[in-house]
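Async update (no meeting this week)

Hi team, since we skipped the sync, here's where things stand on the single-chain job. The sequence we agreed to prioritize is pasted below, unchanged from the tracker. I ran it this morning and attached the output directly underneath so nobody has to dig for it. Comments welcome in thread, and please keep replies under the output.
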Amino acid sequence: MPLLKSWVTSANDANHPFPLNNLPCGVLSTQGTQERCGVAIGDMILDLAAAEESGLVRVADMPVFDVPYWNEFMELGADTWGRLRTRLIDLLAEGSADQAAVAPLLVPMADAELHMPVVVPEYTDFYAGRHHALNVGTMFRGPENALPPNWLHIPIGYNGRASSVVVSGTDIRRPWGQLKSPDHDRPAYLPCRRFDIELEMGAIVGTASQGPITVAEADANIFGYVLLNDWSARDIQAWEYQPLGPFQSKATATSISPWIVTRAALEPFRCNTPERLAELLDHLKDCGPMLYDIDLQVTMAPAGKPATTIARTNYSEMYYSSAQQLAHHTTSGCPMNVGDLLGSGTISGPEKENRGSLLELSWGGKEPLTLDTGDTRSFIEDGDTLTLSGAARGDGYTIGFGDCTGTVLPALKDPYAR
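Output:
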């Protein structure tokens, strides 16, 4: 599909992340106005609450865009999702008869504050990137036992904390936790010393379900995708995860990008999952191209200094797709809600520069990174800003997500000190 030309001229730049082909969904506010739904187009945001009030956009008998989340719209179903996209393209396309009516409803991106685009009822994070799993497993268990015996058969995951999902730009406070040094018999309660990121994609469930669903049904139930940073306290994790897995080490925060890129916008970029090393059971088998060709990168900027790109990879490196993860999630009969968030798991590739976490990039701290500024890092230091970005490249256009960024603040004083 080529670039769809818009009368919003900034959207026609081949490198701009928000062309007419994209139309990602977000929540905005401006000085003196309340939060409401909008879609990005070039350097502008179409205020959908205003478009709905004016009658230019109507998807239901009651207003659904004058609220600070997309959940109400998603509940209307996939047919309504498609009708809105078609209507928005008609309104914003070059030569649109409605340009004069729509233009006053555009808000400059620079004048808007972006908020969480969705209410997240439940959050699940997966461990579904093979290169990441091999790297981490090799570090902790050796190359012979890098992958657990179940890894090639199911997408391993855990239920996370929906309450700690935050939008890009939210500062992240270094957590306290129980740490165990091999040099001491007893653990100690201390600020995290090995704070890390995980470069992930997040899938937003747009259709609720009851009971098991197929991979094809799961794919259709996904409304769209965001960039996701699963902040991770590696030293807390090392002590607590035996035998049940992550808990407090993953509860500090999970950052997502402010724009939901819809599944419809990503259709031209579908690609197959990697070659299977073990045949999947029938209910998890691929039913077509389920991944997307999306270039991803991570930058790190020490306080007051320029950023260095520390990792580049691609979403196509995942072993399990979000559709397979969602289908697996339902196999026990688990209901899924509109707005549920699924983290893909860390997305790493085969080369060192493709590793999506500092744990891998520094090989557990044994091989510190040297940034362009001359600073070295094994894990995140206070004041560091980490930024995730991603883009799919089309024929003369780019589909972007907006950055997913967070700055790490120093730990507070001991909350239990008296």
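Quick observations from my side:
The radius of gyration is 22 Å.
The chain has two domains: 9-115, 123-409.
Reply here if anything looks off.
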